[in-house]
Amino acid sequence: MKNILTLILFNYLIINLSTAQNRPIGTNLAGISDWSSELTFVDLMKSSRNWINHEGSGSSWSSGVSIPLDSNGYPFEIPYNNGINPPQYTRTILLHNSLQNLYPSGNYRLIVNGTGKIRFWNIVNLTISCPIDTFIYIDNSTANDLFLEIEESNVNNHINEINFIMPSHANSYLSQPFHPELIKFTNNFQTVRFMDKMRTNETVIINWEDRSTTTDFTQALNNGIAYEYIIEYCNANKVNPWICIPHQATDQFIINFAQLFRDNLDSDLKVYVEYSNEVWNSIFPANTYVNNMGANLGYSGNPWEQGWKYYAKRCADIFSIFENEYTDNNRFVKVISSQAANDWLSNQILIHFNDPIYNPNQITADAFAIAPYFGGGIADDIGNANLINSITVANIIDSLTNSMNQSFSWIDNQNTVANNHNLDLIAYEGGQHLVTYNYNNDNYFVSLLADVNRHPDMENLYCQMFDYWYSKSNTGLFCNFSSHGNWGTYGYWGVKENYSDTLSPKYLGLTNCVFNYNPISAITNLSIKKKELFKIVDLLGRETTPKNNALLFYIYNDGTVEKKIIVE
User: Fold this and answer.
1) DSSP 3-state assignment of 54?
2) Percent of the chain beyond pLDDT 70?
């Protein structure tokens, strides 16, 4: 009888989960840097800053003098003497002072190949002769930067590899290079957009050889993360990658890119393909580039119109290359994007895309993407009205609530445009947009806006946003912006401030109004060798804690589910 009851209850769980409304969800990940609270790699050298060249102790912070580097970005010789300037030395930052307590204290494994001498200073101070493979104790309790200085590097056997690996990962950093908390975070998402990790808005990539590689000394340069790491991450964690093709990339680059993902990405995964990011946005170099390219090709109209037409043409070019390189078009999703607040512009871009002048092969797209933020402009409106010192958190929450209808109208209008062009409407970004551009030097105001983001009512605002988005018949994937971030002067983009910030109201909005709507199979897609408990859910698939005399389901990261009854 007990076994029969268990079977009935388990079947009840499966039925409820399989019939629950599915809310396809993705996330943008934060960029890689020494100051990012999203620690991407367990090897801190992979997120270190670019080399800062200088003239030695007591000199200015940076000399601006170039030092010759090998193919992986390591200097051939230190000190370097070009015969004109004083001898040059170089340093990098491994940890920014804002990350106090966010990285673990403990023994870090240091590996240096090549002959020379390096020095750590600030958090720890010591000089080390190389080559070396040793452990160094790091204390996370002080708010200091951690510097690594190359004081000597022998030109005949120069320092050519440095690794600085977090505790508990000393022997696994090559096979499991990603921070386990990042893996845990993306476990709830089906798609990950790598726009910031690819440095899409800063990239200077043109040719295939310009890209980053996994052997580069850092992944925090302007050309972004190595694409092999994107593939490795997505294959290991069973998430679809959303990639942004660099705006200056040549056709041969795109061919190589398509082949790399075709041959190495798990065939069960789909790659979302987008040309750059917000090319209509004048703050990004891609906008100037497409405007100039449209003019060079003789397209008619104002510079911005020429840019829209070139954007449509380049989307068609990219999609055509992917179709030529793949035998199965179901393995990628062709995405065209536009400004959420401007459905007229969206329609113009899609008209140009369907025009044989710009799309002679009449390549089709699969999805149309927007970024339906809410609350944009509110912060600067507060400053312009001289209300910074009198307005309350509750007042700003009310303003955000009132702004939701505007965002909803954008979704409705863009849904109509997408329907008219037979495309699915998806979101490449979205969330709150409470940021000040004109008053970000006012520390009180910046702190006040952070308090708004931490307010419990923010969860309800996120739920309103998601409920409206998923209620529309033609809307699909929503890519939250963004994952983790240091909130402050430049905004509050992270849904969490750091890995431990699991009670962030924005993250609770995702959990309660998206994750809990999705079946177990959509949230237990992590595949790693070590089996670990992922979460505990009740009969309806809602995350819970152990309860006496209740039938609960313990879900593990290898996809297995174990039924348990906790008896008092």
Assistant:
1) strand
2) 89
Beta bridge partners of 566: 548
Read off the pLDDT of each residue in 114-130 and give the average, rounded to a whole number. Answer: 97
What does the alpha-carbon distance between residue 272 and residue 333 come to, in Å, rounded to a whole number? 5
String of DSSP letters for 223-255: T-S-HHHHHHHHHHHT-EEEEEE-TT--HHHHH
Higher pLDDT, 22 or 493: 493
**H helix or E strand, kind and range, residue 316:** helix 303-325
Q: What is the pTM of this model?
A: 0.88
In this prediction, residue 57 has a pLDDT band, given cuts at 50, 70 and 90, of: confident
Question: What is the dihedral angle through the alpha carbons of 347, 352, 355, 360, rounded to the nearest 10 degrees?
Answer: -140
Contact 224, 200 (CB under 8 A): yes
pLDDT at residue 34, rounded to an integer: 97
What's the domain range around 537? 2-18+533-565
**Alpha carbons 144 and 147: distance in angstroms, whole number:** 9
Q: Tell me, what's the pLDDT at 523?
A: 41
- Structure confidence at residue 520 as a pLDDT band (50, 70, 90): low
Residue type at 343? D
Together in a domain, 185 and 159: no
Which residues are CB-contacts of 267 (< 8 A; sequence separation ≥ 6)? 328, 331
- Residue 221 CA: distances (Å) to CA of 73, 158, 257, 560: 10, 21, 19, 39
Same domain, 251 and 354: yes
The answer to whether 89 and 77 are in contact (CB under 8 A) is no
**Rounded-to-integer distance, Cα 173 and Cα 79, Å:** 31
160 and 202 inside one domain:
no
Nearest to 506 by CA among 446, 432, 398, 564: 432
Lookup: tokens for 469 = 């988005």
Contacts of residue 167, defined as CB under 8 A and 6 or more positions apart, other chains included, come to 104, 105, 106, 107, 108
Q: What is the CATH number of the domain that holds 417?
A: 3.20.20.80
Q: Looking at the structure, do residues 26 and 13 belong to the same domain, yes or no?
A: no
- Report pLDDT digits (tens) over 123-171: 999 999 999 999 999 999 988 999 999 999 999 999 999 999 999 999 9
**Hey, how many other C-beta atoms are within 10 angstroms of the C-beta on 140?**
16
Greatest Cα-to-Cα distance within the chain, rounded to the nearest angstrom: 89
Residue 171 lies in a domain: no
Structural domains in the chain (count): 3
Q: Can you point out the beta strands (E) in 143-291?
A: 146-153, 161-165, 191-193, 240-245, 271-275
Place of tokens 């629950």: 20
**What's the token pair of residue 483?**
């994952």
- Classify residue 56: in a domain, yes or no: yes
Q: CA–CA separation, 316 vs 420, rounded Å?
A: 19
- Rounded CA-CA distance 398/27 in Å is 26
Q: Is residue 126 part of a domain?
A: yes
pLDDT tier, 564 (very low <50, low <70, confident <90, very high otherwise): low
